[in-house]
Amino acid sequence: MRRTPLLALLIAAVASHAGAQTPPRFTPIADAFTHRVKGDSVTVTGRATAGTGQLQATVFDISVQDGTAGIRVFSRKFGVEVHEGDSIITTGTVQTYRGTHELMATSLTVVPAEARHIQPADVPIDQASLPKYDGMLVRARGRVARYGTSEGGQYLTLRDIRPDAKGTLTIWVPSNHGAPIDLQRVRFEDSVTVTGVIARYQDNPSDPVVWQVVPRTHDDVIVPVVQHDLPAWVTAAALAVATLLALALFVGRWSASRQLRALRETEVRYRQLLALSPDAVLVHADGAVRFANPAAAKLLGLESESQLNGRSLHDFVPPDLRDIIERPAIPARGQLAERHRGHLASSTGRLVDVEVTAAPCVYLDRPAVVVLARDITQQLRYERDLQGLALVDELTGLANRRGFTLFAEQELARARREKRAPVVVFADIDMLKQINDAHGHAAGDQAIRIVANAFKSVLRESDIVARWGGDEFVALIGEGGERAAQQIAARLAGAIAALRPAGLAFVVKASVGMCPLDLNLSLAEALDTADAALYEQKKR
Q: 280: part of which helix (H) or strand (E)?
């Protein structure tokens, strides 16, 4: 049996001593989760770890934790001013929205007491350990594996700094966040420390759980000020060269044997640094490889770097990179060598995506070129994923507003050339706000997906359909004209009814408006006309 938090006992004692009515029965937050299925109303008390307007600026959304767990407290009906560290009492029902536990508050009181700083719990980026911190204020450290923006906000994906760890943690700043937090100042592989409220995110029950941390203020995201453009081994190599210069200054004070021994030790350390470098390092002169580190052998599919020595550079470098590698440009004073993207051919013939930097050097008293190559296969995959996310609505799989505008403008240009008049269809879901308020946001998401799937079922592959935003959908009918659009509007209601699951507790309907696209109209003007037609139909 869980212990009642100390704050709740103190509040109850004060109320009893003052002759007040019987205080409410407080439920530990960890036990409140068990009431979610029953739908019982619970009263919890604790300290605010995120105050009013921090997590979201447009609704009342704070975070509270006691000695047992933490939870987000959410309401659209009232706006109580809550500061970090305030003691609160709140009553409501526990619900789950996209995997996150929320207390839908019906009442909330700030208890007169001195605010207290809540120390965040340090958490490892470990999928097995994160569930016990659900809803609490945490602090996590990791390296940036991915970063970017979507229509919903900004995100970072952190990975554990331990080499054998595989867990990840998402840092999420929604677009309606209450503080000006800019995640775009980070770079790939930056070491970042983030403090914030942690919660699970799960769009559908069958989807994997994604752990997210929402920071409260700009100070919750700590990014190193110093950025290192060169690999760590280069800095270490520079230190080794400095050591050689220092030895030269004291040449008169050391015997010849001690100088030789020091130089040998420096050479050993330098070779160790090259051996540990994750980037491939190649030195070539007269068209042949003269030196390679283990990472270069691994990149090119060979067992040992010795298999590279003496090989022609043309065995691995395609024509598009040969000029850059064989005759690199000398950077201006104070500038870094230019980076180039391309491919290297492995010993098996497989092309490897790489980022290459080359610079002239001297090797064994001969003019040579040193080449640094980094495998960017995974990075390119991330970039393609981010590009796809930028054009696709995550909830429905349809194009989003940006994607529709891009594809529709292309189709409109093609229609002008072919003297066709496409039709714009605009639709929105009736009473979606009432569905959200009465049945929860998960029900509203289900209604959106039903209408999206209905659109897919009645449109042809050549038509363009998108979720315009919220409860709105838009489609561009490329062929068939206004008659085809009217048929689609008539069939949409039947498709929605057919896709509606049996026993659904709410009705899903959509209103439709359309506008034949005069080739002299812009896409934006056609959308405005279709939108006006939609609202005329809703009035009727």
A: strand 280-285
Give the whole-angstrom CA distance, residue 439 versus residue 77.
16
Which pLDDT band, with edges at 50, 70 and 90, does 226 fall under? very low
CA quadruple 212, 215, 218, 220: dihedral sign: negative
- Classify residue 331 by its DSSP letter: P
Q: How far apart are CA 284 and CA 215, in angstroms?
A: 49
384-422 tens-digit pLDDT: 765 666 788 889 889 898 888 888 888 888 888 888 878
Radius of gyration of the CA atoms of the chain, in A: 31
DSSP 191-260: EEEEEEEEEEE-SSTTSPPEEEEE-SSGGGEE--S----S-HHHHHHHHHHHHHHHHHHTGGGS-HHHHH
Tokens 């619900």 -> residue? 95
Token digits for 46?
Answer: 């604790």
Q: CB burial class (10 A; 0-12, 13-18, 19+) of residue 503?
A: exposed
Retrieve residue 405's tokens.
């505008």
Cα–Cα dist 201/96, whole Å: 10
Structural domains of the chain, ranges and CATH numbers in brackets: 6-111 (2.40.50.140), 121-222 (2.40.50.140), 231-274 (no CATH), 278-378 (3.30.450.20), 392-539 (3.30.70.270)
Per-residue tokens: 248: 């030269």
Alpha-carbon dihedral sign for residues 77, 83, 89, 95: positive
d(CA 214, CA 83): 17
